[in-house]
Amino acid sequence: MNDLESQIANIVEQNGYSLYDIEILKENDSNIFRVSITAQNPITLEDCEKISDIISPLVDVYNPIDNEYFLEVSSPGLERKLTKPNHFKLSLGDKIQITLQDKTKIIGILGESNENGFFLDKQYFKYSDIKKAKSIFEW
């Protein structure tokens, strides 16, 4: 899927957006190929439709899932999963929650990050120490 991901990233960027993530998941017995995009301004339904229309033929050719699936283009949302080093870099200064491998949950402000890990309230964590991470939006 790396070639497909890089082609999708190029298309998304050529249209003024950034590729946040690509996921393959199953929801309610349906396979979903989810492409999350970001931009300087909030992502609208029209933005998602535009990118979906452009990448749909490409995804059909690559057929990333063996069975029938739905292509979904969306914003990653206010509370975003942080799974890649770039996700952490995009969330610097945000409040996040991490779950360690031993299931301990920690909430704090995301500080500096690099390719190996990040600081959360002045404590350094390696990405390999983390089971899950997400940004937290407070109303």
CATH homologous superfamily placement of the largest domain: RimP-like superfamily, N-terminal
Radius of gyration: 16 Å
Helix proportion: 25-40%
Architecture per CATH nomenclature, i.e. the level-2 architecture of the largest domain: 2-Layer Sandwich
Unreliable spans are none
Summarize the main sheet.
5 strands, antiparallel
CATH class of the largest domain: Alpha Beta
Shape: globular
| Order of secondary-structure elements | HEEHEHEEEEE
CATH overall fold name of the largest domain:
GMP Synthetase, Chain A, domain 3
Query: How many DSSP helices?
Result: 3
Tell me the count of domains: 2
List keywords for this structure.
139 residues, alpha+beta, GMP Synthetase, Chain A, domain 3, SH3 type barrels, five-stranded antiparallel sheet, three-stranded mixed sheet, 27% helix
